[in-house]
Specification:
mainly alpha, 0% strand, 174 residues
């Protein structure tokens, strides 16, 4: 098992790796056509949810010092609302970007120090009980990933796909 430099990451690392597996599992078998379906015009489609998930990874990388740019940031940054007049990337394109950025972020999570995690990172939330630090941003990203996987999982069932599996691909180390 990889040992993070910061003990604070001992909780984050397993969640991050589990989200990597969950993201791939929840998208498994979804057709590109179904990936663009909305329910009664009220929901985001799976492509938007997956794109927001990948964008969250790029944002996390940015906060940790990576300068890789999400090629679809203009569609997903900060949960930008779905716009049906936009052309969205395919699930395959999003998965490719996911596999590109995720191992780099994983390495950063292992290397980040307590001092870096304690640095102020303004999120503009203005919530009195949340100290806006890099550590709390990491936690917010993990929470957002959970939420998006749950949303995609629900869409799987609505679109008549089997529920997500919890199979692990042990060759994926991030």
């Amino acid at each position: 098992m990889d040992t993070p430099q910061s003990k604070k990451m001992e909780l984050i690392i397993p969640a991050y790796r589990m989200h990597t597996q969950s993201f791939l599992n929840v998208l498994d078998g979804i057709s590109e056509e179904d990936g663009l379906k909305r329910i009664e015009g009220k929901t985001n489609h799976i492509v938007w949810m997956a794109g927001n998930f990948v964008n969250m990874r790029y944002s996390l990388g940015w906060v940790l010092g990576l300068r890789d740019e999400d090629p679809y940031s203009d569609l997903f940054f900060q949960g930008k609302a779905l716009n049906e007049s936009n052309t969205y990337p395919t699930l395959d394109e999003l998965e490719k970007n996911f596999h590109d950025i995720s191992p780099k972020i994983f390495q950063k999570l292992l290397e980040v120090t307590d001092e870096e995690l304690d640095e102020i990172f303004e999120m503009g939330m203005n919530i009195p009980f949340i100290r806006e630090t890099k550590l709390n941003f990491v936690g917010m990203c993990i929470g957002r990933e959970d939420y998006l996987c749950g949303q995609i999982g629900l869409m799987r069932r609505i679109l008549d796909y089997p529920g997500m599996t919890y199979d692990m691909d042990e060759s994926i180390k991030y």
